[in-house]
Amino acid sequence: MEIAVGDPVTLAVLVPLCPLAAFALTWLLARKRPAAAAALSLAAVSVSLALSVILLAGQVQAPAEIRADLPWMPAGHLLIRMGILLNPLSALMIVIVSAVSLLVQVYSLGYMKGDPAFPRFFSYLSLFSFSMLTLVLADNFILLYMAWELVGLCSYLLIGFWYHKPEAARAAKKAFVVTRVGDLGFLVGILVLSLLAGTFDFQEVARFIGAGSVPQGQVTLVVLLLFCGAVGKSGQFPLHVWLPDAMEGPTPVSALIHSATMVAAGVFMVARLYTIFQASADALRVVASLGAFTAAFAALIALAQDDIKRVLAYSTISQLGYMMLALGAGGYGAGLFHLTTHAAFKTLLFLGAGSVIHVLGTNDLRRMGGLGRRMPVTAVAFGVAVLAIAGIFPLSGFWSKDAILEAVRSSGQTAAYAAALGTVFLTALYMSRLFFLAFTGAPRGEQAPHESPAVMTVPMIILAALAIGLGVIGSPLAVRGIEGFLDPASPRPALDIGMLLLSNGLAAAGIMVALAVFGPWRTPASLSRRPSGPFHAVLANKFYIDELYMLVIRGLYFTLTRVIAWFDRHVVDGMVNLVGGASTRGGTLLRRTVGGKVQGYALMVTGGTLAVLVLLLLAGLGVFGQGGGGR
Amino acid sequence: MQVTLTHYLVLAALLFCIGIYGAVSRKNAIGILMALELVFNAVNLTFVAAGRFRPAPDAVGQLFALFVIAAAAAESVLGLAIILAIYRRRVVVNADEMDLMKH
Amino acid sequence: MQAVLFYALAAALLVSAGLVVASRNIFHAALWLAVALFVVAALYVMLGAYFLAAIQVLIYIGAVVVLAIFVINLTRTVVGAPVTLTRRWVIPAALVSALTACLIAVALAKSGLPGGPAPDTAGVDWTAALGRHLLGDYVIPFELVSVLLLAALIAAIAIVGKDREDEK
Questions:
Q1: SS3 state at B2
Q2: C66-74 and B60-90 helices, crossing angle to 10°
Q3: Staple partner for A133: which of A16, A153, A290, C53, CB 3.0–4.6 Å?
Q4: pTM attached to this predicted model
Q5: Complex confidence, ipTM
């Protein structure tokens, strides 16, 4: 079927502009009108979704790189151009972003109902949609970076949405500052790269790097700098610390930004610039190793968390690590496939958690239990998502995860492979634990649970369906498969029975262990008791990374500021005071010369004249240079 | 031994320095004035001696000395008049105590 | 012969000048001033400036010193008490004058003054020469000095004259 609806460039440009319009209009017209604000936002994002689907369909039919740009700013001998790059990757991303945005916005109608800042929330969601869509459509580093920063800003605004909550404000600040660290490296990388290549355009830079005129060491350095941005944005170790704290924001925010879209920006960026990354095998190895480590690391921490959203946050970090691992190991298609499936089931997990929180009023797992009976839809949807993330056949998660494992195994990095397999087990374990603690067994807290309204459950159902069926696009059932779509060079998707048995075996083991330790047969009392022991403490305290950072910051930074403050007080102010003091004291001193006594004056006159005469004499003698009498 | 110009100049110089010393250190205002007279005389001596010892001696040195005498006389008179006026008002004659103009 | 006379006069001058500045009794100081001025007049005679010597005696000693003595007497209440020279000013004064002496010494040493005796001026009529200058090339300064003296006169009267208030 031929789809030819309008010019792809126009459509592509409209995709981010609609939410931007919604944002502007909401602020101008609908600041105090919740209904209008929501309507604007939903309308805009629906339009974006429709257009995105059309564009994706077009790309599926005929994958092509479509470009359009405008001259934007002359800077020296450079002319910076702004434009869009529409190719399979960006087409896929805009669909993901707008679809998840739409579902979350619908969900928010229920979740944020009654909140006094309802319009502001929706305006921020629209702003975020605009920023994220621009980010994935950008064709040059400048636009990418601007959108990158904007996305960070939206994250800040949304995490700290309830700004009177001090924890929220602090979390928003932390997110911003930590990602800033990564962004700094990113910016330096961009600048160096553009300086070398003489341009900011992705394709031109890629061509330049491909030409091989830059020494390998420099390439690796630049790539690693660029990767810093991804480390920050996608919450890889060691810049992962902001993500769990970001859970202070409303749950729809966590669902949208901190599971499916913004944090995926880092992965996207690596994918977008993949040809540049491929120029440095060392850098790719770093990416893969870091991803593998992060995946295992975060999974361990998730095991010991008692806050439902924190578990999911660390899960996100872990899964992002998987994606990075895939990209680093050469599994370009696999990593992006997982990004897609993850968007579905992680969003679902967050929405489910939000449903529970909304009804119970608490995040604490120890106070939950037995919710499955009273919130069936939520429980079933959540359960589906758990199975998907654990990678159970034939859900979507299985296909994408196995693709990754396949890619890692064939890349020959055994340590990373082992870590990835271990994480499969851990993921199943902590997610099952979460499910059992929340939805099974006897109720532990004081609760009167009920199912959430339709406006919240319908998006969950839709996502559950996707979580089940999305795997098909990467399975042998697809003609070309998503991997082939994104990377024509990848092999046809095939079902590897060996891998299936391995991964599902590990996952099943994890679920079994969780069942044994946390299953419904455990008594409420034993489940609410806080486990002790050093091992648990380390995990529960997130390996004390935050504490370490604070120590370093306090040590270095505050010492530095103390030094500077001392300097300012004593040297800078000291100089000012010196000038003032000198004037005053000098004046007092000089005042004594006007004593009123004639002898003093006579003395001064005589002394002065004497001095002048001495000088004249010396000048005459040639002490101050020739020209004197020099007798 | 010949008496040369240098002799006179040295003498005048010494007289000059004595006069300055007195002008600065004397407490009595009249004393200060008298010391200044010594200074003037030293200057005059220099002028006259210089005029005398020129290769072509002329009266210009004496002429200057004459003018100096006249001016010095006028100045001394006025100085003494002022001292007298101050004395009338405040019954002091020590320069130390005449310090109304101090800041 | 000339040298001996010179040194004698020089000594006399320096001694009397020293006494002028050092005498505790102001009256004595005035008298010593008269002596010093007289010695200076003698030196003028040695240099051949007869007219000037006469003027020196007439005006300096005859008028200025006399006037000084008058004023000393008029301000007598404070005269009797033995007055000590202020310690405060002695040291700076001595310093300054010593430095001045050095300065002059250095200047003299470095200058190329004629070292010979006085040129022969046996037949020179200095007084006539003086008169010629005064009414010739230097007539304007001459007149100005007259004006100056007049101004001094008026000023002195104004300063010392009785105030109208005193008369009431």
A1: coil
A2: 10
A3: A16
A4: 0.66
A5: 0.86
